[in-house]
Design goal:
The structure holds 2 protein chains of 2 kinds. By secondary structure, chain A is mainly β. Chain A has strands spanning 4-7, 10-13, 19-25, 31-38, 42-51, 54-57, 65-67, 73-78, 87-94, 103-104, 108-112. Chain B contains no helices and 11 strands. In chain B, strands 2, 4, 5, 9, 10 and 11 form a 6-stranded mixed beta sheet that branches. In chain B, strands 1-3-8-7-6 form a 5-stranded antiparallel beta sheet, with no helix packed on it. Classes of the chains: A mainly beta, B mainly beta.
Chain lengths: 113, 111
């Protein structure tokens, strides 16, 4: 099993450009999450999904959109990138009965110039 | 608002020198406290779940303990491969409650 995979691993954008980050999991988990990790800030939840076709806002949702069209995939979109969105983005998944036991992907390092 | 404070920010140990990492938390009813390990350039990896005060969990050289206000991750006779950032997170009771993470403790173990 590959677990949780993320595409791409690295990306450089110019201010105002858009992009989509893809997360895929092969563990049949209902719940999926997008986090960002910044130096000195810890992991912060952006958006999450408790099932196919459902999404909800986390702690820092502004400037991001998400979609969960298939159970195994969770997409994070930036419509108009800003330098403040420079960060490392992690996707994670979990079972509904054990939300605290999350399986993380390897991360996407995004730089917005 | 749920809060998690980890200390110290960084810890350097000699191989074999035991120590403890601290996680203090404030939460409106604790559903669970979680420890993760994160290696440089990788995603966090789950280590332990603790649910109630007095509970302990062990894995190799690591032992996690929980009180009503804090959790400790004890590292006994660490090895260089234990070098990593250790993250603590809490989940409060209630519907739609998600994890709140601390900033992490970076542990370096010198041979």
């Amino acid at each position: 099993n590959a677990g949780v995979t993320q595409t791409p691993k690295f990306r450089v954008l110019k201010t105002g450009q858009s992009m989509t980050l893809l997360c895929a999991q092969d563990m049949n988990h209902e719940y999926m999450y997008w986090y960002r990790q910044d130096p000195g800030m810890g992991l912060r939840l952006i958006h999450y999904s408790v099932g196919e076709g459902t999404t909800a806002k986390g702690e820092v949702p502004d400037g991001y959109n998400v979609s969960r069209l298939k159970k195994q995939n969770f997409l994070l979109g930036l419509e108009s990138a800003a330098p403040s969105q420079t960060s490392v983005y992690f996707c994670a998944s979990s079972r509904p009965t054990s939300e605290g036991t999350q399986y993380f992907g390897p991360g996407t390092r995004l730089t917005v110039l | 608002e749920d809060q998690v404070t980890q200390s110290p920010e960084a810890l350097r140990l000699q191989e074999g020198e035991s120590s403890s990492l601290n996680c203090s938390y404030t939460v409106s009813g604790l559903r669970g406290l979680f420890w993760y390990r994160q290696d440089p350039g990788k995603g966090p990896e789950f280590l332990f779940t603790l649910y109630s005060a007095g509970e302990e969990k062990e894995k190799e050289r690591l032992k996690a303990t929980l009180t009503k206000k804090e959790s400790f991750l004890h590292i006994t006779a660490p090895k260089p491969e234990d070098s990593a950032t250790y993250l603590c997170a809490v989940q409060a009771n209630g519907a739609n409650s998600k994890l709140t993470f601390g900033k992490g403790i970076t542990l370096s173990v010198r041979p």
